[in-house]
Write a structure and sequence with these properties.
By secondary structure, this protein is of the alpha+beta class. About 15% of the residues lie in helices and about 20% in strands. The longest helix has 11 residues.
């Protein structure tokens, strides 16, 4: 069964720069094996030494997280879309050198009035 696999940017060096590839497999586990057959080294980036998906690798089948399906045994069918998404971590205390945005997070234009400051308008009952 041919499925489309979305490859994240950090792994595209293994797929010749391709952001999407086609593969044939009946399960996510078989898909990883098939991808390794075409793109040497991909399995090592996705799986640990015991063959389990690395905990910072998320795999979605048709936008459903396989952790909430059947894990690596999640079945695939023709036309499915599989997305490999590496987790993004961060949290440097100094914002990692990223300057703070004036006024907080950006808002879409027309999204309504700005939110009040924390604690503004709070009633205190005594």
């Amino acid at each position: 069964m041919s499925v489309t696999v979305r490859i994240p940017t950090p792994l595209r060096s293994l797929t010749g720069g391709q952001g999407e590839v086609q593969a044939t497999a009946a399960s996510v586990r078989e898909l990883i094996d098939a991808l390794e057959g075409k793109y040497q080294g991909l399995r090592d980036r996705l799986c640990d030494e015991q063959g389990q998906l690395r905990r910072f690798i998320n795999v979605y089948v048709n936008e459903e997280d396989i952790r909430f399906l059947q894990g690596p045994q999640t079945p695939l069918k023709a036309g499915d879309q599989v997305s490999i998404v590496p987790a993004i971590a961060g949290g440097a205390g100094d914002r990692g050198g990223v300057p703070a945005m004036a006024g907080g997070c950006p808002r879409a234009s027309g999204a309504g009035p700005p939110l009040p400051a924390a604690g503004a308008g709070r009633r205190v009952f005594r």
